[in-house]
Design brief:
There is one protein chain. By secondary structure, the protein is α/β, with parallel strands linked by helices. It has a single domain, classed as Aldolase class I (TIM Barrel, Alpha-Beta Barrel). α1 packs parallel to α2, α2 packs parallel to α3 and α3 packs parallel to α5. The two termini are about 20 Å apart. Bound molecules: S-adenosylmethionine and iron/sulfur cluster.
């Protein structure tokens, strides 16, 4: 699948639920209204859409959310997608999780064919973790991270950089990741959804973080890419990598290879734009596989050139109304 700007679309991110057991301040409002069950695709419907994407050249699938591991039965979706790894056309099946349920599922994920996981952890300080997640405890996430490591999964830690919140911790987190053999990826806050806080207050440009880190660490340029928006450096002192996702200070759209499916079957061709395609309607109207493929191709032909994220005092509305938990980041 090639979009109008010549980009091959090989990566599908699937939000399998809008629900979550945490309420991270940058991601969700405290009082969220979740979708009724009938609106959410069944695991079989999700599997069918993923199969269509794989048929048309998608080689990487990431399950996300909401919190993907709180969806009941989700391991059966991993298992079924896992059977398509290799000769089935899929190169990689992976997941982004807050880690709270990972201790329970790490071994099953490995058995299904998952080899790498991204775990979101913005702080190593238990009280700050509770403040950022509004009520979470850090221990289940840490247990999940170490269970994943013990099960043989490569772990990447994702941390959203927040001004005045965790900005003093990145040296410690980089050292901790080095000690345990994890890569670290820092993310700028993106203006998605009403969150009942002021984003200008939260926003911390990663260019500043990077120059601060350079005082204590040797960050060596690398051309390592995961096909995503992160720019990576080798950390000479730890032998691990650090990535920076900078949608605000550096636009990553030219090399975009991905689209996002929500748990209601809405396909978003860009994280930062509202145009979409309703694949649930197509499927529930009784579409054949060929008709489903056509609907996906038509959507890809509408993929926009890029996002228009801006965070400053003059833009006090989010760039898109939906929360990050709808599309899973
Ligand atoms: N619940 C899982 C988790 O937290 O990893 C998966 C879904 S979560 C929406 C995916 C990623 O998006 C997380 O790393 C989270 O920190 C990030 N995220 C959420 N809201 C964001 C925002 N407004 N700006 C930047 N990153 C955000
Ligand atoms: Fe939940 Fe992940 Fe959003 Fe935090 S970032 S509220 S863990 S979906």
């Amino acid at each position: 699948m090639i979009d109008p700007f010549g980009r091959a679309i090989t990566y599908l991110r699937v939000s399998v639920t809008d629900r979550c057991d945490l309420r991270c301040v940058y991601c969700m409002a405290e009082d969220m209204h979740f979708l009724p069950k009938k609106d959410v695709l069944s695991l079989e419907e999700l599997d069918r859409i993923c199969a269509a994407f794989i048929r048309m050249g998608t080689t990487k699938i990431r399950l996300t959310g909401g919190e993907p591991l709180v969806r009941r039965g989700v391991i059966s979706l991993f298992r079924s997608l896992g059977t398509r790894i290799g000769t089935g056309g899929l190169n990689e099946l992976t997941v982004t999780t807050n880690g709270t349920q990972l201790a329970k599922h790490a071994e099953a994920l490995v058995a299904a064919g998952v080899r790498r996981v991204n775990v979101s952890l913005d702080t190593l300080d238990p009280a700050r973790f509770t403040a950022i997640t509004r009520w979470g405890k850090i221990e289940p996430t840490l247990d999940g991270i170490f269970a994943a490591k013990a099960a043989g999964l490569a772990v990447k830690i994702n941390a959203v950089a927040m001004k005045g919140v965790n900005e003093g911790e990145f040296d410690t987190m980089l050292a901790w990741c080095g000690e345990h053999g994890f890569d670290l990826c820092l993310i700028e806050t993106m203006p998605m959804g009403e969150i009942s806080e002021d984003r200008t207050e939260q926003y911390l440009p990663l260019s500043i973080v990077r120059s601060r880190l350079r005082k204590h660490w040797t960050l060596e340029d690398t051309d390592y890419r995961t096909g995503g928006p992160a720019r990576y450096f080798n950390v000479a002192e730890t032998g691990r990598r650090i990535g920076f996702i900078t949608p605000m200070t550096h636009n990553f759209c030219e090399s975009c290879n991905r689209v996002r499916l929500t748990c209601t079957g809405t396909l978003f061709m860009c994280l930062g734009q509202d145009d979409d395609a309703d694949l649930r309607a197509v499927m529930r109207a009784g579409a054949s596989d060929a008709e489903l493929d056509d609907a996906i191709r038509e959507a890809i032909s509408r993929k926009p050139k890029g996002h228009d994220f801006v965070i400053d005092r003059r833009h006090d509305q989010p760039a898109v109304a939906r929360h990050m938990s709808v599309t899973g980041g």
